[in-house]
Amino acid sequence: MPRYYQVVIHDRQKNAVYRAQVPGDQYLLTSLEAQGIALPFACRNGCCTTCGVRVRRGEVYQPEALGISAALRAQGYALTCVGYARSDLELVTQDEDELYELQFGQYFGKGRVRVGLPLEED
Ligand code: FES
Questions:
Q1: Residue whose CA is closest, atom 3 of ligand 1?
Q2: Could you tell me if residue 113 is inside a domain?
Q3: Per the domain annotation, does 66 fall within a domain?
């Protein structure tokens, strides 16, 4: 029998607050969807950061969260698609691309961009 936790989610984009109970053995995103709470997602695999949230209170266990560094996890970010509640939680949806920029922004858009296929003389 799994342990259940209380979760409060502040959905900043929809200006809504959701409350739910989630089991500790099910991904947060899956469990919340099953209760009619639709949150952003894309890959559902812990890689793209679309489902990222700020953890305002509580602990999320997320060993499969490959899309965010340990440093960002320590700053309080979590991926709901591969995150499990380990305590009661208070979560806040991120700004669009907030976590993506923090995780990947330093690597993209810094080099020379050329339109089209590379030419031999390049
Ligand atoms: S949906 Fe892509 S990391 Fe969660």
A1: 46
A2: no
A3: yes
